Structures are given as C-alpha cells and as structure tokens.
Amino acid sequence: MNRCIYVLSPVALIHILLACNVPVPNDDPIKSAIASYALEAGSRAETHPRIYSTTSSYSTAGLGSVAGADAICNTDINKPAGGVFRALIAGPGARVGSITANVGDGQLDWVLKPNKKYYRAADDRLIQETNSVGLFPFPIKESIADTPGNAWTGLTAGWITGGHCSSWSAIGGTADAADTRALTTDAVGGVPVVCTSSAKIICVERPEVPLKVFISSSTYLPGIDFTSVAGADALCMSDPANPGGGNYKAMMVDGTSRRASNSALVGDLQLDWVLRPFRSYVRATDGAPIQTTDSVALFTFPLQNDLGLASGVWTGLFPDWTTGSNCAAWSTSAANGVAANSGNVFSSAVGSWATLPCNNGERIVCVQQP
Question: Do 367 and 343 form a contact (C-beta atoms < 8 A)?
C-alpha cells in the first residue's frame, strides 16, 4: 500500500489550531510556538497593517451600524488570517475621520493610524502611507482592491462624514461610497450610491498588539481585602503576578459600577467594562492566545486557551455575561458571590462555576487596559 506523508510547517499547524479553537495543554511543546506566533502577529500588525475589500456585498440594512460593519470585516470570507479588522466607514457619533476637509480634526474611533504604511492584503502591495493625522494623501500608490466594485464608506472626498443611510440602518436616500479600484479621492468616498443598493466594505487591520490577562497569585477575601470593584482593580496593580506594561482592571462586576451585559449575551448597557471590541487577548505568563472579543467586547466560547492558572476566581458573572451574586458589591464577607474557573475554556471560565460564601479567598482575573 502506498502511503503519503504530509508535513505541515509550524505556522500552518498553528493556523489550524487557532482556526479550530483547539485548546493547547499547558505542557504541550507547541505552546511556546503559539506564543511566539501571537507576538509575531501583533508585531506584524503594528508594522505592516493590511487592508482588504470584502468578497460579499451588503445592503445598508444588513450593516445596521458602524459596529455591524466591523463585525462583517471580521467574518467575511476574504478576511486574512491572524488579524483583527475594522471598517473604513463613517457614521455620526460612532466613527469620524475629519470634521474639516483633509484636516483630521475631531476624529472618533478612527481606523487609520498616523504615519503608517498600509498594504493590500491580497498581494502585499503598498497602498499608501498615512500622514500625521491618519489620512491618506492622494493619489494612493495602489488601489485598495484589484477587482472593480463600490464600497460603503459614508465619506466625502475630504474625509468628512457624508451620506450614511441613517447610520447604515435604512434603505432610503443616498450614501457616499468608494471605488475600490480608484487611486484618486474616489478610493475612499464621494461616490454617490443609493441606499437600496448593495456594496462591499473596506476593512482595515488594527495595528495593535494583543492585551494581556493574568490570574492573581494571591487569593482575596471580599469585604476584607477589597470592598469594591475599584478595590479589586487596585489589587490587580499590586499583585505579585502583575507583569507590568500598563494599567490592569479586574474582570469583576457588581451591576452598578461595572457591568458586562444587562441582557444575556448582548453586551448592552456596559459600565466600565474591562474588555474592548475586536481586541485580541493573550495570557501574560506565556503569550498564548485566549480569544479575540466580538463586536460587543465579549468572549465567545470555547476560548482558544484558558485564562491561566486553574483556580477559582471572583467575577460576579453568569456564563451569559450578566451580573450574578457579588458579595453585596464586594463589600462584605457575609454573603455569597459567583466565581469562575480560570482553567476552563468554556463559559464557566468567566462565570457560574460556583456560588461561594464570600468568606472564601479566591483569585482575581486581571485584564490589561489599552
């Protein structure tokens, strides 16, 4: 019998593991390779961010919002592996490139970074380098796509917010779109398209390194070692396991000063929430990827890898990200609170692993802030 042996490169194997959400045991030798890959991907996104145009075209009602366009950028079949993308699209109160033509003033959640070279994902050709305010000068060097098509942007030729189909939720009127084959200002906007049409989306890679998560080395008693969410945040900063490199907050809710979601799995009415939308998170101990959040800054399950040390951790979260028992807002040891199991990759990693008496000492999940 003839047998064929296929040899996968380490990078190819890592892509398969990450794409399939395969958790990697702590003692597996490929763990260090995954950690290196995660760091390399973050570094590449910082120095070599990519832009692509979606394969599919979308109606404005199908977008629903700027956040909806961001979500599409991270699920479209044309999305390159290993990156997190946001839509080059403007909307009032959600994303602004410039208030005054070509000035870059009043930017809000803008997707292009200043003085950064952006590359076409399909063939790695340099599209253009942004100026000091995160805008492309024209003409650009290469078109955003190598196939013709319009893309919704809501931008005029001067990067000002133009027509946007009622913030991408209606099918009446006209919106500004881009010609993805153009090298002139048409490449980003100023092309009128009726809102009953469908168009592609231009997606820009976020040149940002992953944020870190660590599990406290010490256990803490609510009402004694800390008496509020803010007190837990302070413990994240002073705990011996803190790796440094920024500000850390506790993945812990009380429903009044910190909330992840008011409704199950929706991410609505968030308060001082510690995760950010479409951000990649890694374990601080070894750089292994945990997960990239969704459009409402929540993890989906299973995680790619567990949060770290297998331990009970105070969170006050139910598995659907709503607020559960929390030791009277963490102010007393004479009540009950919801704890998670940080060594799990399923929803119990964040909540409802157990409801425990608050006089138990448990660890804290600490999340780096951007």
Answer: no
Radius of gyration of the chain (CA): 22
The fold of 50-205 is: Mannose-Binding Protein A; Chain A (3.10.100)
Examine residue 289 and say whether the peptide bond preceding it is cis (omega within 30 degrees of 0). Answer: no
Report residue 139 as tokens.
Answer: 């003409």
For residue 24, the model assigns a pLDDT of: 46
User: Alpha-carbon distance 234 to 103, whole Å?
Assistant: 40
What is residue 205's three-state secondary structure?
A: strand
pLDDT of residue 14: 42
Q: What is the CATH number of domain 208-370?
A: 3.10.100.10
DSSP E strand stretches across 13-169: 50-53, 58-59, 85-87, 117-120, 126-129, 150-152
| Contact (CB, 8 A) for 201 and 183 | no
Chain Cα centroid distance, residue 370: 11
Looking at the chain, the whole-number percentage of residues with pLDDT higher than 90 is 73
Q: Give me the residue spans of the domains in the chain.
A: 50-205, 208-370
Q: Which SS3 state, helix, strand or coil, does residue 275 take?
A: coil
Q: What are phi and psi of 193, to 5 degrees?
A: -135, 135
Residue 44: pLDDT band with limits 50, 70, 90:
low
Identify the bridge partners of residue 314 per DSSP, sorted by sequence position. 339, 364
Q: What is the pLDDT of residue 34?
A: 45
Half-sphere exposure of 349 toward its Cβ, with a 13 Å CA cutoff?
23
φ/ψ of 148, rounded to 5, equals: -70, 155
- Of the ranges 27-36, 109-118, 265-274, which one carries the lowest mean pLDDT score? 27-36
Residue 36, SS3?
A: helix
From CA 226, how far away is CA 234, in angstroms rounded?
9
CA distances from 302 to 146, 261, 290, 318 (A): 36, 19, 10, 15
Residue 83: name the closest of 113, 56, 51 by CA.
51
Judge whether 50-205 and 208-370 match in fold.
yes
**Number of other CB atoms surrounding residue 10 within 10 Å:** 12
pTM for the predicted model, two decimal places: 0.63
The rounded distance, in Å, linking the Cα atoms of 329 and 326 is: 5
